[in-house]
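Expect chain and fold; see below:
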Amino acid sequence: MSTTWREIYRKIVHVALSLLLFAPFYFKLPPPLNPYSYYSLGLFLAAFINSVVVKKDKLTLEINALRDELHRFAESIGDIAKMPISILEEILTDFHSFVEKQLSLLERDYEKREGYVGLLYGIIGATSSLLVDPSHAFYGIVALAVVDVLASMSSLLIWNKGKTMGGEAIAFLSFAIILMSLGVPVLQSILVSAVATLSEYFSPEDNLTVPFFTTIAAFILKLPERHPL
């Protein structure tokens, strides 16, 4: 898969996961879930996925060892009994290949060494925003879903580069327009969008900082409150 399509795939997954973070703002969660427990579950799953990526090589060795053990066991028994074990071995192989392919598509270069931190940091940023100010965290999550995606994809598709000032400008204008469409006054929209864009451009991990600093800016500038249901 080319670098461009790989990045497009990553951003599609990024947007899809970001949309899940909006659920408490549009739907009443079934008990015993509430916005905080919902985000906590997301945080746990993100940390678990990250741990799988970090230990992927070890997991690969363990799956291969189990598959070899099944193969040796199958060789020691009759042909009739071999069939279900062969099926299980094939399922293990297919599952391992699928997981490894998906993780490989989602990982950035440094994440191959340090784990899939993008997902983990995104959930941490969103959860921190909700804990600090639940009435303005919505804007931070919108920024998480929009700013990085637009900045990266426009830079890649138009200028064939990573981060560019042109891509950041497109992200800035787009997020400001989205805020205005949500009923935020023009000046506040511009200022909050500037904070989100600067957080994306200068941060070593934008998934962590963009939602948090956008939420803080929305609180300071007194944007219309949008509480979880």
